């Protein structure tokens, strides 16, 4: 019986494709890819010419049966996305969930992931972080989601596209004030940049230099300061009082 290999591909720099990933992609019978044309451009230079099946958010459920049959007939399949680690703000969750549920082997082949890459060099706390993926596109729900993170003590991590980066920074400035923000742009690529300031300053930098608004972004926001002892004691006192009153 075959296995599903979940294979990470580069997020920009092709050297980040691991030797193991290259070998697995060369050995499997099929490759399930988010965008088959995009992936063909990655695979062709490696001399990998495999049947590609598309797997995107609109056909994932439908593909489960196809992939299950492939594994049942002894075929090995690799799952890749356009960039980075599949399932991380990318398709694949339904397929992995369903194939595992039916007892099939799912084998991760790790590699690049934008959020981990960004955190590894940002200089923000990494012991705890909250990955929020993409923020909602519409202003109201986006601000709501940001609000939900405001009191969290973990480092907050968001993915953002160049279309909305300015609007999102404005929202962060309005809701987080002078909180420290690290913006990682074009990771592993030629114009890789880390900017470190408050959101308003970052927004201004982008207006002054529109090149800074190009490309792909990971936005990281420092977690809220833990409540100091005094407020903490006060909160505990209040909780105690409430408990007493309830009795
Ligand atoms: N699966 C991918 C991963 O493992 O990171 C993420 C895919 S998601 C559709 C694409 C988003 O990831 C981009 O909009 C951006 O927020 C982030 N991203 C991907 N590559 C990046 C890069 N080279 N630099 C900065 N952010 C990147």
UniProtKB/TrEMBL annotation:
The record's annotation in Pfam families points to: RsmI_C, TP_methylase
What sequence ranges are listed for the domain Tetrapyrrole methylase? 4-202
The answer on whether this UniProt entry bears the keyword Cytoplasm reads: yes
Q: Which UniProt keywords apply?
A: Cytoplasm, Methyltransferase, rRNA processing, S-adenosyl-L-methionine, Transferase
Tell me the compartments it is located in: Cytoplasm
Q: Which top-level enzyme class is recorded in the Swiss-Prot or TrEMBL entry?
A: transferase
Q: What EC number(s) is this enzyme filed under?
A: 2.1.1.198
Q: One GO cellular component term, please give it.
A: cytoplasm
Name the principal localization, coarsely classed: cytoplasm
- Entry-linked InterPro entries: 4pyrrol_Mease, 4pyrrol_Methylase_sf, 4pyrrole_Mease_sub1, 4pyrrole_Mease_sub2, rRNA_ssu_MeTfrase_I, RsmI_HTH, SAM_MeTrfase_RsmI_CS
Q: What's a Gene Ontology MF term here? A: rRNA (cytosine-2'-O-)-methyltransferase activity
Q: Does the keyword Cytoplasm apply?
A: yes
| Catalysis: reaction(s) | cytidine(1402) in 16S rRNA + S-adenosyl-L-methionine = 2'-O-methylcytidine(1402) in 16S rRNA + S-adenosyl-L-homocysteine + H(+)
The job of this chain, per UniProt, is described as:
Catalyzes the 2'-O-methylation of the ribose of cytidine 1402 (C1402) in 16S rRNA.
Q: Which family does it belong to?
A: Belongs to the methyltransferase superfamily. RsmI family.
- Name the chain's protein: Ribosomal RNA small subunit methyltransferase I
Taxonomic source organism: Chromohalobacter marismortui
């Amino acid at each position: 019986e075959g296995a599903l290999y979940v294979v990470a591909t580069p997020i920009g720099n092709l050297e980040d494709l691991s030797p193991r990933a290259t070998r697995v992609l060369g050995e499997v019978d099929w490759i399930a890819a988010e965008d088959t044309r995009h992936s063909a451009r990655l695979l062709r230079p490696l001399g990998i010419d495999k049947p590609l099946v598309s797997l995107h958010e609109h056909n994932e459920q439908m593909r489960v049966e196809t992939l299950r049959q492939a594994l049942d007939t002894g075929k090995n399949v690799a799952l890749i996305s356009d960039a980075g680690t599949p399932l991380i703000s990318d398709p694949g969750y339904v397929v992995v969930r369903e194939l595992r549920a039916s007892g099939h082997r799912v084998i991760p082949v790790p590699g690049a992931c934008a959020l981990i890459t960004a955190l590894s060099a940002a200089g923000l706390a990494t012991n705890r972080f909250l990955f929020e993926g993409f923020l909602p596109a519409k202003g109201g729900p986006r601000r709501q989601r940001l609000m939900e993170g405001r009191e969290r003590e973990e480092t907050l991590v968001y993915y953002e596209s160049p279309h909305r980066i300015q609007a999102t920074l404005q929202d962060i400035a309005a809701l987080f004030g002078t909180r420290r923000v690290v913006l990682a742009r074009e990771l592993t690529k030629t114009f890789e940049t880390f900017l470190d300031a408050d959101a308003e300053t970052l927004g201004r930098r982008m207006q002054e230099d529109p090149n800074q608004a190009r490309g792909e972004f990971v936005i990281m926001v420092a977690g809220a300061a833990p409540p100091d002892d005094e407020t903490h004691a006060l909160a505990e006192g209040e909780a105690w009082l409430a408990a007493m009153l309830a009795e």
